[in-house]
Design goal:
Helix content is 12%, strand content 12%. The chain is low in regular secondary structure and 86 residues long. Bound molecules: iron/sulfur cluster (2 copies).
């Protein structure tokens, strides 16, 4: 893992209220991180368009839209997109 400070690897945007704010109940899939596979590289947090992954690599599901970009970009394939229970 690089020696970059935690905040150096985060997206510039941060979650906020507004038109694209909290997700509500429409998300179909949620990301689930396999901590055994994760190497802490932070790419998922950098690519998340909603800034929903914090500097401890925890997904804030209030803002996550379930787009799957984080899972797609993860070099360790450590993120599974799991269908939401209804
Ligand atoms: S991109 Fe994958 S390996 Fe890197 S921090 Fe995120 S979950 Fe872990
Ligand atoms: S599924 Fe999309 S919105 Fe949710 S944490 Fe991953 S990249 Fe961000």
């Amino acid at each position: 893992m690089s020696s970059a400070k935690k905040h150096d690897r985060l997206a510039i945007s941060t979650p906020t209220e507004g038109a694209a704010g909290q997700t509500g109940s429409w998300r179909v899939f949620r990301p689930v991180v396999d901590k055994e596979k994760c190497n802490g590289c932070g790419l998922c947090a950098m690519y998340c368009p909603d800034g929903a992954i914090d500097d401890d690599l925890v997904v804030d599901l209030r803002f996550c839209k379930g787009c799957g970009i984080c899972a797609n970009e993860c070099p360790k394939k450590a993120i599974a997109m799991v269908r939401e229970e209804r």
